[in-house]
Design brief:
single chain, 8 helices, about 55% helix, about 240 residues, 2 domains, two-stranded antiparallel ribbon, about 10% strand
Amino acid sequence: MSAHSDAPAATVPRYARFSRRFRGIMLDWMIAMVIIFGAVALASVVQNDNFSRVLGVLVIAGLLLYEPVLVSFTGSTLGHYFTNLRVVDERSGGNVSFLKACARVAIKSVLGLYSFVILAATRRNQAVHDLLTKSTVQIRDMTKASPGQYVSERNDPADTNLPPRWRRVAVICVYIVLIFVVIGLIAIGLMSDACVRNASNCSAIERIFNTAAGVLVLLLIALAIGRGWKGRLYGARKAR
């Protein structure tokens, strides 16, 4: 049984799926692009160096503080809000602190989409930046959500048929290394020497291939983590 199984349905936390969270990220990205292009257009109209420098500093500061300030004070960025999401502190059940919000942004910026590959292996659909800051991303208003937008807290029973956690983690890491090695070797074999030596020398087709390879790596890593944690990978399989 879930830890929340006896609670009223309206009060049970529902954790956002990756598709919902990605939509919120894209909305925030579009807002950032509008601000940047708007500032560039304004600076080009005014044509004053001092004004442009001040405006540039304000825009950079605003973009850096955008998520930490909004998440810590309101529980969501505009992207979160318009996709019916909010960031919740696991310990207090309220908004995360400003420092935690800053840490979330920093970790997410470093890891990028790789932060999300562990979602399926966590009880509360958490990314790496969620786990490290003890936070979750939940549905803000359940009356406006559809079942495909969220998951409930996953059960984590003591299954004696599963291999030990350390073994599952070790096998998952081996698979991740193999994914990088295999995809990397395929990429090197298919791309020109000039592209391999310098990415700026890649043709349009090679750039498309690089992008597709990056997406494939993300999907394969997510699959390896999800299946490995459930004991479905060779080397750490669940006993029948």
